[in-house]
Task: structure prediction
Amino acid sequence: MRGVVAWLVAQAYRHVGDAAAAVQAFAQAAQLSQAAGNPFFALLAASNRADQLIDQGKLQQAAEAHRHVQAMAGEKPLPVVGDSFVVSSVIFLEWNDLEAAINTVVHGIELARQASIQDVVLSGYFVLARAKQAQQDPGGALDVIQEALELAQAYDAPHRYAEALAWQARLWLLQGKLDAAVCWAQDSGLSVDDKVSYLQENEYLTLARVLIAQGQAEKRQPPLAQAAQLLARLLQAAQAGGRMCRVIEVLTLQVLTCAAQGDHPQALATLERALSLAEPEGYVRTFLDQGPAMIELLGNVKAQDERMKSYVHRLLFASDEQKDLSASSFTSQPLVKVLSERERQVLRLVAAHRSNQEIADALCVSSNTVKTHLKRIYAKLNVRSRFEAVEQAKKLDWL
Result:
C-alpha cells in the first residue's frame, strides 16, 4: 500500500505540473513496489518517472530510463508497459527518427489495447498522427486523429476528446488549413484570459499557434498581442514547474510571435535562448514543426561557438530532408541537388564499406532509418544496390 500511496502522491504532483517533485515521488513508488513484490506498480511508477523526465527536458536520461523499464519487462511485457513504448516514441519523434517513432508507438498501442488501457492508446494516436504528418502524410495523420476522436467519445473521456480536437487543429495549421483551425479556436471555449491548468496546456498552446498564424496571414497585431500575452503566462508556469520541455516549446512560439510583430532582434535573441536549452538534448521537431518562418530565422542565427553552429546546421539539414521527403518528383532536378546532406553522409559511409548498423551508430539513428535513407538514395540515383550508388557518386565526384 505504501507503494500505491507514493504513486498517488506522484500523480498529484504531475497533475499540478511539478515535474521535479513528481520524478522523486515516482522513483520512491517504484522502489517501494519493487521491494514489496508488486511488479505491476513497480513498472508503472518507473515508466511514469521516465515520462516526467521528458517534461523536465531530460530526453537522454528519459530514453535510458525507458530502455531500463522495457528491459525489466522482458520479452513478453505486461500491457502496462505499453505506456513506456508510447512515451519512448515521443523521444524518437523529437529526435526526428520517424521510423523508430512509428514502430515504437505502434508496439505501445498494441500492448495497451490488450488490457483496454484506452488512455495510453489515445496518447499513442496523438504521437502517431504527429509522426505521419512529419512523414508528409497529412491524410494519414488526420485519419489517426479521427480514430482518436472516436475512441475518446466511446471511452467517455471529454477532456481527452478536447485534447484530440486540439491536436487536429494543430495538424490543420501544419497543413495550411487556417480557416478550419480558427473555427476550432472559436468553438473551443478557450480564452487568453483563462486560468490555465497544466492538464490543458496543449490546448492553450494550440490556441497560441492559431493566433500567431492569424496574425501572420492577416498581418494584424491584435492576434499577435493576444498570443504574446498567453505565451508569457505559459512560460512562467512551465519555468515554475521545472518543465524545460515546455519552456523550449513556448520559446519557439515566442520567436514566431516576435518575428511576426516585426521585432527581429528580439526574435533572434529568444531563438538563441531556446537553442541553448535544446542543444544538449538534441531537440529537432520542436523547431521544424514551426514551419518556414522558423527555418528562415535559424539561417540567420550567428552561433558563437562550434557546438552551437553544428547544432544549427543539423536542424537546417533536417529541414532540407523534410523538403526532400515532400517532393513528389526528382526527375526535373540535377542529381547533385537531389540528395540531402544526411543522405550524402550515409552514402559516404556506404562507400567506406560500413554496415547499416555501423552507419546508424555513427549518425545516432536507428538501422531502420538508415534503410529508409538508402531506399531514397537508390530512387533518386536510379540505382538498385549499394555498389551502383557508390559508382554513381564517384562519377559525380562526390566522394
Notes: Residues 328-337 have pLDDT under 50 and may be disordered. Residues 95 and 282 are 6 Å apart (CA to CA). The radius of gyration is 22 Å.
